[in-house]
Amino acid sequence: MNYIIDCEKVSKSYGNISALRDVSLKLEKGSFLAIFGPNGAGKTTLLKILSNLVKPTSGTVKINGTPLDNEDGEIRKNIGVVSHNTFLYNNLTPYENLEFYGKMYNIQNLEKRIAGVVDEVGLTVRMHDPVRTFSRGMMQRLSIARVLMPDPSIIYLDEPYTGLDQHAAMKLRDILKNLKREDRTMIMITHNIERGLEVCTHVAIQVMGRIVYMEEINKVDINNFESKYFNTVGKEHY
Amino acid sequence: MDYLKKVWAIVWKDIRAEIRTKEIFSSMFIFSLLVLVIFNFSIDLLEVNPLDIAQGVLWIAFTFSGILGLNRSFLFEKENDCLQGLMLTPIDRSAIYLGKMLGNLIFMLIMEAITVPIFVVLFNIGIYDKIISLAIVIILGTLGFVTVGTLFSAMSVNIKAREVMLPILLFPIVVPVIIASVKSTGAILTGKPFDDIISWLKLIAVFDVVFLVVSFLSFEYIIEE
Predict the structure, then answer these.
(1) What pLDDT is recorded for position B33?
(2) Does A81 lie at the interface with B, CB-CB under 8 angstroms?
(3) What is the pLDDT of residues B130-151, one digit of tens each?
(4) How far is A39 from chain B (nearest CA, A)?
(5) Do A104 and B6 touch (CB under 8 A)?
(6) Sign of the four-CA dihedral A218, A224, A226, A232
(7) CA torsion, ordered A88, A45, A76, A172, to nearest 10 deg
(8) What is the DSSP string of A106-141?
(9) Is A45 on the interface with B (CB under 8 A)?
């Protein structure tokens, strides 16, 4: 079977500390994996390896069949990352931020594309205000617009709900649901079990650098997942 | 061509942000002005020949204020983790280095272009017939300083005491280019023929080329975690 994300026995150590241990993960196109786990479980390290920001100590990662260690930047065109850090320049406007990132991706008809993605996240009226004047929720929506610009087939979300109020979180959830409909492959790391379960097609639990549980959402007892999570993670983590 | 467009996009992004905030330029310019004024008041120019000390004072003003600019340079990229955002784009990571380096070079050269006339007035030194040779030395010397400085700025951005660490790391490496720049500036200001400074200029040019290549090739490994 052709997996869009295929990682095999990936480990990562920082000195004596093992951040990831023999993680294997295979995802088909259109999957939405939600990964839950306590702080320090290695979730962000996993996403950094999958987006080729960090090289694994051992193991292989293939994106669309291409090993990441042979990557020359082409694979990065197809990967978007939304993090709790927005990757936005506070002193520039949304237009200037998106124009800058658009040039990095060689996007054609840039003005039209910027107008389209800004409209998609509902920020058209603030297009020319400096980003530093934005609320946390608006910044996060703009961050999603930044990711949508090159129309990536894979999106990683690293705790995207961090710091958002209820209204902003609901808006973000709606945007994520729309992204899911577009048949993208997505991985989301979140501590919010409810938010994760409502959008994902697969669910995983990561503890101490290992993925200890992974299942399709339709085989998961959603009502009892929280207790399943706490039993799996172990009492020492909460 | 695409590569150069991306480099220019990084330079323009920095210029745009600087036009809005004026954080880098104002701190560099005010510091260089203070250095000139303090030296001007602390040295009795009736007893000391200005040409004996002027070149040193000028390059102290340039390099120390340049350090302030270099310290700020990658801090903007740390804000909201923008450097990581840049690394996620499909650009060659050496383009990030070139863009940041050219931005720093432009900011420093503008600061120097304003500092030199003030220096001329305060130290009463005539440079009208030496402007071109002085400009060549300043541009080459600044290029060497910024080439290494940008690399070390990227290295020190994650260190807590970066304001202290950057000069400690940078100055020992750029000593040859600073000495050569001071010597050739002195020779130009005292009216020595251009042939006398050729050997110093060659040293600066070789330093610029060597460190530009080394920094260009090593930047990717430095910014990777």
Answers:
(1) 94
(2) yes
(3) 899 999 999 999 999 999 999 9
(4) 20
(5) yes
(6) negative
(7) -50
(8) T-SSHHHHHHHHHHHTT-GGGTTS-GGGS-HHHHHH
(9) no
Interchain CB distance below 8 Å, B80 and A89: yes
Residue B179 burial class via C-beta count within 10 angstroms: exposed 0-12, middle 13-18, buried 19 and up: middle
Write down the CATH superfamily of domain A5-237.
P-loop containing nucleotide triphosphate hydrolases (3.40.50.300)
Contacts of B103 in chain A (CB under 8 A): none
**% pLDDT > 70, chain A:** 96
Tens digit of pLDDT for each residue in B211-221? 999 999 999 88
DSSP letters, A3-22, are -SEEEEEEEEEETTEEEEEE
Residue A170 pLDDT grade (very low, low, confident, very high; cuts 50, 70, 90): confident
Find the CB nearest A89 among B5, B17, B90. B17
d(CA B206, CA B185): 18
Does the pLDDT at position B60 exceed 80? yes
d(CA A145, CA A116): 9
Contact between A81 and B89 using a beta-carbon 8 Å cutoff: no
User: Rounded to whole angstroms, how far apart are CA atoms A25 and A42?
Assistant: 14
Q: Are B137 and B205 spatial neighbours (Cβ–Cβ below 8 Å)?
A: no
Residues 6+ apart with CB under 8 A from A12: A18, A19, A20, A42, A45, A49, A54, A56, A57, A209
Any idea where the domains of chain A sit in the sequence? 5-237
Q: Kindly identify which residue of chain A lies nearest to residue B79, measuring between CA atoms.
A: A89
Interface touch A103/B224, C-beta < 8 Å = no
